[in-house]
Amino acid sequence: MSSVHPVLLGGTWRASAGLETFTATNPRTTEPIPDRYPISPWAEVEAALQAAEQAFREMLEMPAEVRARFLERYADRIEARRAEIVAMAEAETALPAEPRLNSTELPRTTDQLRQAAAAAREGSWALPTIDRQRNIRSMYRPLGPVAVFGPNNFPLAFNSVAGGDFAAAVAAGCPVIAKANTSHPGTTRLLAEEAFQAVKEAGLPSAAVQLIYRTSHTDGERLVSHPLLGATAYTGSRAAGLVLKAAADRAGKPIYLELSSINPVVVLPGALRERLTKVADDFLGSCLLGTGQFCTNPGLVLLLAGPDTEAFIAEIARRFNAAPVGTLLSAGVLKSLRESIRRLQEAGAEVIAGGQPGGGAGFSHRNTLLKTTGRQFLAQPEAMQTEAFGNESLFVVCRDEDELAAVLEALEGQLTGCFYTDTQGSDDKLYARLEPILRRKVGRLLNDKMPTGVAVSPGMNHGGPYPATGHPGFTAVGIPASLRRFAMLACYDNVRPHRLPPELQDKNPNGRLWRFVDGEWTRS
Fold this sequence. Notes:
This protein is α/β, with parallel strands linked by helices.
């Protein structure tokens, strides 16, 4: 039997006191991976919190340059170890090394680390605001230690010890307690090893980055509600996320959740008349990419009844049946997908392609397409919006424009929503009617583009109304806005000049910092 990997606590890799262990599983072979990882008892979680609090106090006294140097050095170290990290991630997730992990996700991971470093160094993310007449000044300041719960579907770019939440928290000045996703603990361990080396090289406190692999559900609730914790970032299932949210809310602790989204795509008649095959190409590539295991996967397609719609659905069904079947991330994902499809069927949806497990290597489910009417959707809107996380989508055919508008009104909050319209203007009137309805339901609105893929751009919003996320005012992707989740607005009223943070003193500390001074944005 293999030895148990250590946890990273208080600046050292140490053997866990936990008596229970777990292993990851190779989804393609369905065989367990030999490495064993500990389930940490509460005493270790408490120790991590105490160490993180001390690290936070030390980080408050350090210039932003130290955090920026860490993030950049960490990105360098990930790239230097990319072959081993990519191989481990492929074994634990069955996501292909090329192009997904090595050429797409790893570069995205290091890019967002470097973007976060630039934001920390420049400082404008903190929105320094100065009212000289009243001598009142404010800016965002770090909240405290942050717990990051990473998802199963992005072992690098959303990893709890390397992903966007991690980068944003550190850039804002917060130490991170990473809780690994149990689907890819080995990948997280390799990343944490490089993060810890970068901590030492950059001069951050040794407990600025800590790693535990798993806790009991009860201890997870205690963690997110602990007095020493500043905030939590969580990406995962709605059920587990809401349990953590309830615990955090009871303690008044911020928690930023990414929970559930089916990302409606509205295809208007003119788009099908003009470019049916192109829309089908776009949809197939988006829906089946990564075996559909994206939080922005198009799980709902809304159409108006007509011969072009029937031809479009028939074409998609044919392609779904002919397309290769990918491997799902875990047995749990397969089980959840089967249950979700069954619930959609019980609500009245008809399977017109796939519908059964199997068809691919390891944990797999046939590419599945379901169809229902607008009337049936409106009869059971909650059940019809069940998220089937995987290679599945539901088509809703509405009899007229009024019914299509009613379906949009019935939607829950989503991460994204998309319209496909023609280029000649025949859909413009209907678009103008429907867009205000969908706009309120989604964090990101797209035109003539499928939602899969989230660019790390300052203009990005990877968020949305509940239940897509826990709060519609924040984004998990997009620097610098993502940093402000882990900060508090700190006001200084008549504070003596030498006692102010450098960002709020009259002199611009680095000459590049944008500040809102007496009603105007300026670098002067």
